[in-house]
Amino acid sequence: MTDSIMSKAATMEIPINSNGDTGTLAEDDSLEQAAKLQWSLDEKVGSSRGTRDLQQVMVSGPNLNETSIVSGGYGGTAEGIIPTSSIKGPAVRYNAEFNKRIPVTGLGSNMHHSSSSSSMTAEEVTRGVAVEKLETMKKWGFNTYKCTKQMISERFGRGSRTVDLELEAQIEVLRDTKKKYESVLRLARALTNHFYNMVQTQHALGDTFADLSQKSPELRDEFGYNAETQKLLCKNGETLLGAINFFVSSINTLVKKTMEDTLMTIKMYENARLEFDAYRSDLEELSLGPRDAVAMARIDAAQQQYQVQKDKYERLRSDVIIKLKFLEENKVKVMHKQLLLFHNAISAYFAGNQQQLEQTLKQFNIKLRPPGADKPSWLEEQ
Q: Above 90 in pLDDT, residue 372?
């Protein structure tokens, strides 16, 4: 009996007036009828149900944040209760008829959880990238320190270095050859510029002779002969300029691209050699020290680094040998063709053999730019 009374009391709503005190409503009869109806329902369900509902109400009863307002007025049903608190978790709706707590879930909690997960994932990725960069900088600094130490030791004669006498001699020959070819390239460009100016002067002089031939009847023949000669020289000079320009372009490709590419590989090889000697010296120093557990671990790590640097050094050394071999073959082939072109073109021009000069250009597949073309001249392309 007591359980039923407590169950009925838990399902009733206590109205609150404007002063916060409990008041007496005019509709008390309606409330008594609702209470009787609830009493009969509880009797049918049984005392065990009433006890369980009472325990549930006593444990998880409404708190101050779950104050409800009856939307249907004093005479409305109990199911119209609307929670007015700001819900920060799963909302709870009280059903006065069945005396149960019904959780009302929304999208707010899921969206907050998804946003938190995304932000945590972004932070983890950022942290991983930062750690990776830090490790890279650490390795780079350690390697730079070792190489700098090795380089200073070599310069002051305290450290040993790995030397390949045959390969070092070939590298030195290549560097000396490159300097000489750069000198040839510089002189050939100077010759081209001077000869271009001479051809332009001959062209202007021929035009002047032709104009004077028309305006000086008494010297028409003399001016005419000189005008034709200068125009012929100008034409042959343009043909020779085409041959020299082709010569300069080929030498420039050989020096600035082919030789430079080989020298870049040589530079990588020399850096690998310095790193190899640095790790070799480090391994030798550790081998001369104590042999405890910590020292043996450091020796094993140094041995692994030494092997890595040795493989890199040998690979680049092989690359340098191969490139030097192909460079020498390519240089001989290119220079044989270009020197023959230069000799035949210069000889034919100064011998006044126009036919041989044109034949030389055809032999080496050199095509001159037609007069009046919109493309920039060969001098502008330099």
A: no
Sign of dihedral through CA atoms 301, 156, 152, 317?
negative
Is pLDDT above 50 for 290?
yes
d(CA 16, CA 84): 15
Q: Which of 316, 331, 322 is nearest to 259 (CA)?
A: 331
| CA-wise closest residue to 241 among 271, 280, 203, 279 | 203
User: What pLDDT is attached to residue 199?
Assistant: 94
Closest to 175 (Cα-Cα) out of 57, 260, 103, 265: 260
H/E/C letters for each residue in the chain? CHHHHHHHHHHCCCCCCCCCCCCCCCCHHHHHHHHHHHHHHHHHHCHHHHHHHHHHHHHHCCCHHHCEEECCCCCCCHHHEEECCCCCCCEEEEECCCCEEEEECCHHHHHHHHHHHHHHHHHHHHHHHHHHHHHHHHHHHHHHHHHHHHHHHHHCCCCCCCCCHHHHHHHHHHHHHHHHHHHHHHHHHHHHHHHHHHHHHHHHHHHHHHHHHHHCHHHHHHHHHHHHHHHHHHHHHHHHHHHHHHHHHHHHHHHHHHHHHHHHHHHHHHHHHHHHHHHHHHHHHHHCCCCCHHHHHHHHHHHHHHHHHHHHHHHHHHHHHHHHHHHHHHHHHHHHHHHHHHHHHHHHHHCCCHHHHHHHHHHCCCCCCCCCCCCCCCCCCC
Q: Are 292 and 329 in contact (CB under 8 A)?
A: no
pLDDT at 207: 92
Cα torsion through 342, 348, 352, 357, rounded to 10: -90
Q: What is the pTM of this model?
A: 0.59
74 or 131: which leads in pLDDT: 131
Q: What is the mean pLDDT of residues 339-344?
A: 95
Question: Average pLDDT of the chain?
Answer: 75
Choose among 276, 20, 16: nearest CA to 146.
276
Other Cβ atoms less than 10 A from the Cβ of 19: the count is: 7
Structure tokens at 182: 């750069």
Report residue 85 as tokens.
Answer: 């608190």
Q: Please list, in sequence order, all residues whose beta carbon lies within 8 angstroms of the beta carbon of residue 285, skipping any fewer than 6 positions away.
A: none
